[in-house]
Amino acid sequence: MGKHGQANGKYEQVWTRHGQVWASMRKSLLAKDKHGQGMGKYGQERTRYGQGWASVDNLRASERQAWASKCELGTSMVKVWASRGKQGQERASTTKYGQAWASKGKQGQVWASNRQATDKLKA
Questions:
Q1: Is the pLDDT score of 90 beyond 70?
Q2: Which residues of 2-28 are buried (b: 16+ CB within 10 A; e: fewer)?
């Protein structure tokens, strides 16, 4: 029994040693928890930065949309100007060539009357 008693004593010492190790480990875990809070703070900062980046991206996206709309406006204006230019040319052609067409019409009438006269002569 004595031997076993000594053995038990030894085991108890071992257990107490392990107990101390566990205690120290737990302390370190608690210390890590403190750091964990720190990590939480860093996490908040990261999310804040994330939100910052997101807002910057949104700004960039909105800027891109704005530029796109400006470009669209620009192209539509160009189209409008082009159509106006075309219309202008048409107007110019109607004034310039209108007189020519009118004179051609007159000539046409002359040609028509001449043709009729020739047809009559042939008949």
A1: no
A2: eeeeeeeeeeeeeeeeeeeeeeeeeee
At 1-57, the pLDDT tens digits run: 566 666 777 777 777 777 777 777 777 766 665 655 666 666 677 777 777 777 777
Specify if 104 maps to a domain. no
In a domain, 7, yes or no: yes
Task: For CA atoms 18, 20, 26, 32, give the dihedral sign.
Answer: negative
Q: How many domains does the chain have?
A: 1
Does some domain include residue 54?
Answer: yes
User: In the Cβ-directed half-sphere of 65, how many Cα atoms lie within 13 Å?
Assistant: 6
Distances (CA, A) of 94 to 31, 33, 84, 85, 118: 92, 88, 15, 14, 33
Task: Evaluate whether residue 117 is within a structural domain.
Answer: no
Q: Which domain holds residue 43?
A: 1-91
Q: CA–CA separation, 65 vs 57, rounded Å? A: 12
